Amino acid sequence: MHAFQYHRPASSKDAISLAGQKGEGRYLAGGQSLVQAMKLRLSSPSDLIDLGTIKELAGIKVSGSSVEIGAMTRHADVAASAEIKKAIPSLAALAGMIGDRQVRHMGTIGGSLANSDPAADYPAAVLALNATITTNKRKIAADSYFKGLYETALEPGELLTSVTFQAPKRGAYMKFRNPASRFALVGVYVADFGGNVRVGVTGAGASAFRQSEMEKALSSKFAPEAVASIKVKPDGLNNDLHASPEYRAHLITVMCKRAVEAALK
User: Fold this and answer.
1) Considering only CA atoms, which of 214, 28, 180, 19 is closest in space to residue 108?
2) Residue 254 in contact with residue 176, Cβ under 8 Å?
3) Beta strands 209-210 and 66-70, pairing class
4) Which among 137, 161, 228, 248 has most CB atoms closer than 10 A?
5) Closest by Cα among 28, 239, 27 to 118
6) Three-state DSSP class for residue 47
7) 36 φ, ψ to 5°?
8) In the CATH scheme, what is the code of domain 58-263?
9) How far is CA 205 from the centre of its chain?
């Protein structure tokens, strides 16, 4: 790990100001990805701006058909929230699947989405639940947020402050886990908004994406058999020691079918 300066600002305003002064500085949320990258010398920020004590960045608010989650809200808090369990139970269930207990008690939703690991769970929910990403500068629609491998619409120094999800009529998330990391080899989130279905896929590509063919089929008939025969093309899907593009393509159909079955229970 390279040397760096550590900062602990008291407010979002102070954090943003520091980021503007430190050209090679990075925001530190839960540290579950950034610190590991620093240990491997894959990332070498000059300054770490710790957001951990900024209370205004954490919290859960439910209003009507939407759920707003502060960027520094821990995965464990999302999983345990009675409000989220009532409004979007499938989102609370997803949070409970992330990593292990230590990761869930340290990792944050904002850190996960800012990092945009191709195998992270939350990106599938962001797309399926038609979420809005709020930063210190603007609001970003889910469909405009993910750009590529570890790449998002966030600009340098821009601070992700909260995420607002839309509550569906019903929904579910299913993933095929890597047994060691518990990341998703493929994860599929299905959300039915009453005839309008959105399907978010993570783990399969360079970043999360929507599966339009499955959305169309499920919007016509929300049933497992509607997607069971869909053959996803492997072109452009991830290829690594864990799974081939062909296997991941197959898993998208399998996980989508299981998600629909779960949503109907």
Assistant:
1) 28
2) yes
3) unpaired
4) 248
5) 239
6) strand
7) -65, -40
8) 3.30.465.10
9) 14
Domain boundaries, the chain: 5-50, 58-263
Euclidean distance between CA atoms 163 and 115, whole angstroms? 14
Backbone angles phi, psi at 135, to 5 degrees: -120, -175
Query: How does pLDDT run along the chain (265 residues), one tens digit per residue?
Result: 889 999 999 999 999 999 999 889 999 999 989 998 999 999 999 999 999 999 999 999 999 899 999 999 999 999 999 999 999 999 999 999 999 999 999 999 999 999 999 999 999 999 999 999 999 999 999 999 999 999 999 999 999 999 999 999 999 999 999 988 889 999 999 999 998 999 999 999 999 999 999 999 999 999 999 999 999 999 999 999 999 999 999 999 999 999 999 999 9
* Residue in the block written with tokens 């009453």: 194
- The class that CATH gives domain 5-50 is alpha beta
- Pairwise CA distance, residues 202 & 178, whole Å: 13
